[in-house]
Amino acid sequence: MNAPSHTTHVPVVIVGGGQAGLSVSHHLKKLGIDHLVLEKNRVGHSWRNDRWDTFCLVTPNWQCRLPDYPYQGTDPKGFMLKDEIVAYLEGFARMVDPPIREGVSVTRVGKGPRGGFEVETSEGRLTADHVVVATGGYDVPIVPPYAHALTKDVAQIHSVDYRNPDQLPPGEVLVVGSGQSGVQIMEDLYLAGRQVHLCVGPAPRSPRQYRGKDATEWLMEMGYYELTIDRHPQGEKAKEKTNHYMSGRAGGHEIDLRRFALQGVKLYGSIAGMDGATIRFADDLAKNLDDADEVYVSIRRDIDKYIAAQGIDAPEEPPFVPVWTPRDTPTEIDAKAAGIGAIVWAIGFRPNYAWIDLPAFDGRGAPKFTRGVSPVEGLYFIGLPWLNTWGSGRFLGVADDAQFLAGVMSERLHARKSAAA
Questions:
Q1: Which domain of life is it from (predicted)?
Q2: Containing domain of residue 360, as a range?
Q3: Total number of domains in the chain
């Protein structure tokens, strides 16, 4: 799947050969539009190289709906493991057969001297009428500056580098962050018999099975995944919200951090600072647990209302009752005295758009777009959470976003040809 290296101008350049970029390529091929996909590594690299050994999807396999390539296995309600995800994406790439150059980095995209765009790459320079940014938002691992002030006796890695418990030195482990990665790495370490400490942030949580179905099935029926950002009650602020945590491990289950506390995991509030062997935490553990549970309960309430409104015969479930409440949680510990030998940072990533030399971003450096269409004519974004709907950043919704952008490009290319004629 390699395009000829002598191409100097193409109508469309897609930067990124993951599921989003390949989905755009598929729809452009169906429309007969010449294009080129540039991928700095190889198809499936992030899934293959940037996930831990036991990683699996938190959404069921039936939600894997890349364009014209839905999940074809025998376990639609299961959760694909890392190798299965890679195989699914590689199978999609074989079907699409995109004009792609793997191992090619894009170092700059700017305005061309005669209109359009100039695309500088590790293999030379291209020009294009349209550029699609399909690189995602997980480029730069976040580690706070004060991490460098911690004693060197404690090993530190980011979640992107975590593979398995045996990789870490002996001793107890502090996981910082309670988003999807943080809680799943915490569970991975706990199941391996490691003593785990967890900094609990403001991430919300979700039910897994509720009233006879996986919660995602109810939400799909209720139209949640089709809710567009302009109709969301929180509007643009929804883009800043962390995904709800739960797990697909061992057939899928919800994660209640209070239960893990009962089983020996030591919980603290948000990380606040480090100095020498001292690690400081905010006094917000109770609030963060309560807020996560409120979101959990609100999802259950919405499902209850839907079941009642539709007259659905579904089994009843008892109301949620917290099984543990924090008492006298320390806001400071000594890592050496606590026996902590390693820290896993799981507080997310920052996107890197420094290579885009165009006025396409807001004051905080976030891309500006409406359903992926940038105010900079000819520039597009795809594969980001809430690009248009809740499902936009997932295997579930990227197909619709790709089809829409391909249609926009088709209309603009045809209008340009008509004007030239």
A1: Bacteria
A2: 9-139+351-420
A3: 2
